[in-house]
Amino acid sequence: MVKKQQQDGLPVVASSHGSTFKAWAWATAKPFVPPWIVTGMTGIAGAGAHAAWGGSPWAGVGLTLGTVALTATTWTAAAKTGRQRRLHSAITVASASAWTTAAALSGPTAGPLLDLYLMGGAVLALSWNIRRVLVASGAVETSAESNKGLMEKVGLARTLLKGVKVEPNKVTASYELPAGELTNADLGRARDRLASALDVPTTAIRIQPDPDSARRGKLVIVPEDMLRTPTIWPGPYAPGQSVAEPLRIGVYDDGADLLLPLLAAIHILVMGMTGSGKTEGALDLLLELLTRKDIVVWLADAAKSGQDFQPLLPAIDWPALDTPSAAAMVAAVQAVIPARTAWLRDHSYREWEPAAAERQTNPAHSCSQDGRACGCDGIAYLLAWFEEAAKLLRELGDDVFTGIAQEARSAGVSLVVSMQRASGYQLSTDTRASLPAAMCFGVKGDDASFALPEEVLDAGADPAAWGNKRKGYVYLASAGVDEDLHATPARTFWTGPSGEYERMAEYVVTQFVDVRAELDEVTAGAAEAAAGQLFTTRHLRALGRPAAPAPALEPTDVQESAQAVAALVDEEDLAVDATADLDQADENVALPPVGDGLSTEQARELLEELIAMVASTGPGTVAVKNLGPYLEQIGRDRSWVSKEMKKLGEEGRLIAPTGNQGEYRLLPVLAGAA
Q: Cβ contacts of residue 585 below 8 Å, gap of 6+?
C-alpha cells in the first residue's frame, strides 16, 4: 500500500505542500525581516568599531559628532513624512548610533551595553514590525500624517485622510474634516488650491461627498491625463439588441466604458462650444442607436442641413434638414405623444418597454375585449434629435420643447436638444428642468452651470478648463449612471480621419438595415396628420428633390371643381365678369371704423381680408408675425390674432395649419372665391 502511494506520487505531493508552505511563510515574514537585519548589522558595526578604535578619545569625538549629524539628517529628510514616522525614524537612528559609539569606545559587552543591545534592539525592531502591521490594516493614518502639511497649506488643517488606495494613475482616499469647523463645501472651494499644491490640473481632483455626512467623503486624484490619446470607435456595443441596453459612446479616464442608459436618461441636453467635439459625440450616439432593433430616429438639423450626418441619413427615418421640416417635426412629436400613450394604455403598458415594440402575442398586453392576444404590431421607441437647436428656438420660442419633454416619458419618446451654448435666454427653465440628463463638452466661462447640476460642479467638474482645446472631452450626468462618475472626465470615441467615418457609417447603414425597426402606423398616422406633406415627402426633401406634383385633374374633376366654386358665388354676382377691371372707387367712400372702434365681428372680417392679402402677395402662407404691422388697424393684440387664426385653421375656413408653428396656408378654393 505504501508502495502504491509512492507510485501515485503522494510523497511528491507532500513535498510540494511543504514547499508551498515555506514559500508562503517566507513571503509573509519577508516584510518584517529588515528591522532585524539592521539590528544585527548595528551589533556587528559596534564590535568592528571597538576593534578599530577602542580606547581612542578622538574616535569617540568623531563618532559622537557622527551620531548627531546622522540623527539630524534623518529628522530633516523625514520632514515630508508624517510626524509619528519622522519621530520614530529619528529615535531609531539616534539610539542605534549612540549604542554604536559606546560599543566602539568600551566594547559591545562592557557594562550594560550587551543588555541594552539585546533588549533595545529587539524593542526597536518590533516597533517597526508593529507599525507595518498597523499600516497594512489601516489603523495608522499614514496618509493623513504625510499630507497634514499639504492640507494646512490649502486651509484645511486637521483634515484626516484615511483608507488610501493607490492604483495606476489614481489615488483614492477617504477624508474627514474637523467637526464644526469645515464642511464638504469648504473642501470644494479649496480644490483649486489643492490642485496647485499638487501641480495637477483642476480636473484631476474630484470630490465625492458622503450623502449622509457634511464633513466626510472621498477624494480622488488622477495625476495624469489618460484621455489625451483618442480611442477609435470600436464598433457597436450591443448590435441587434434593444435600445434598453446602454449605449457605449466613449471611455472614462480610468479606461472604463462611457455608457449612456437611454431609457433612464429619457431626455438629454447636449452642449459644447465650436471645436469641443460635440459632433463626434452625436455621431457616436447615432452609430449606436442605428444598430438597435427597436428604435426609430428623427433628426432635425436646419442650421447645417445635415452636413455632418450625410452618410447616416439613409438609416434615419426622418431627416429634417430645413426650418419648415424641423418645425413640422416639432408639431409631429407633439402629436404622436398622445397617440402613442393611448396605444400603450390600450395594451396595458404603464410606460414603453422592449416588449411594446414586438407583435402583441401576450394576452396580458392585448387591446382585445375577449381576453385573447390581439396580435397588434408594436410601436418602436422614438428618439427626436434636434441638432443646433438654437436656431429653431429663435424661430418657434424658447418653450417649444417644454410640453414634449414633460409628456413624452411614458410614450416611449426621447428628446435630444443639442446646442453650443444653453442659457435662460434660449431655453426656458421649465424645458431645462425637463431635460434630466446632460452631456457637457468644453464650454466658455460659467456656461456649464446651465447644463450640469450644481453638485456635479462642486464635485470638480470643470468643462471650462477644456474649452475647445480638448476635443471630445465630456461630462455625463444622467440617471442610471453612478453619481460618482458624473464629475469624472470622459472622452467620446473618435470616428477617425476623413474617409474612416464614412466607412463606419456605411457599415452601420448597410449591415443593420434588416435589424432596424420601421416606423409604426400609430406614430406615422399622428405625424402625417400634424405635418402633412412635410412628413409624407420627408425622404425626398432630405435628398433635395421636390415633392411629386399633384396629379392632373380629369375633365370631369375640373367640371366638378368649377361647379363647387360656382356654388360659393352669390346669385347677385353671377353676371359679374371676374376678368373685368374694377370701377374706380369714389373718393369719399366711407371706410369702416378703425382700431378700437371695430366690433368683434368687424375685426374678424378685417383679419380675414388681411390674411388673404398677405398670403396672396407672398408664398401662399401667412404667419401670426406677418400681421404685426396691422395690429393697430385691427384694434386687437397679437394674442387675439393668434387665437382667431388658430380657430380659422381648426375650422378649415380660409386657412389651414402648416408644419410651422403659428404659420398657415391659404386654402385655394376660398382664395379664388374671395
A: none
Would you say domain 265-542 falls under CATH 2.60.120.10? no
Q: Checking phi first, is residue 563 left (phi over 0); if not, alpha (psi -120 to 50) or beta?
A: alpha
**What are residue 276's DSSP bridge partners?**
none
Q: What pTM value is reported for the model? A: 0.60
Residue 440 identity (one-letter amino acid): C
Q: How far is Cα 613 from Cα 387, in angstroms, rounded to an integer? A: 36
Distance of CA 30 to the CA centre of its chain: 48
- Does residue 388 contact residue 302 with C-beta atoms inside 8 Å? yes
Residue range 448-465: average pLDDT? 84
User: Which amino acid type is present at position 392?
Assistant: L
* Predicted local confidence at residue 670, as pLDDT: 33
Query: Would you state the pLDDT for residue 582?
Result: 46
pLDDT in tens, 472-491: 999 999 999 988 889 889 99
What span, in angstroms and rounded, lies between the C-alpha atoms of 408 and 428? 17
Mean pLDDT of 551-576: 44
Instruction: Quote the distance between the C-alpha of residue 556 and its chain's center.
Output: 61
Q: Give 232's strand partners.
A: 494
Q: Which amino acid is at 181?
A: E
Packing angle between helix 57-77 and helix 83-106, nearest 10 degrees? 170
Exposed (0-12), middle (13-18) or buried (19+): which is 169, by Cβ within 10 Å? middle
C-alpha cell at 628: 404685426
Distance CA 533, CA 641 (A): 26
Q: CATH 3.30.980.40: does it fit domain 142-221?
A: yes
- Whether 331 contacts 401, CB under 8 Å: no
Residues 21, 25, 28, 30, CA torsion sign: negative
Tens digits of residue pLDDT in 310-325: 999 999 999 998 888 8
- Name residue 622's beta-bridge partners: 664
Q: For 347-491, where are the alpha helices, taking DSSP H only?
A: 389-396, 402-407, 429-433, 454-458
The CATH class given to the 555-572+591-673 domain equals: mainly alpha
Q: Which helix (H) or strand (E) holds 269?
A: strand 268-271
- Strand 413-419, strand 381-386: pairing: parallel
Q: Pinpoint the alpha helices (H) of 466-520.
A: 500-511
- CA pseudo-torsion sign 304, 310, 531, 406: negative
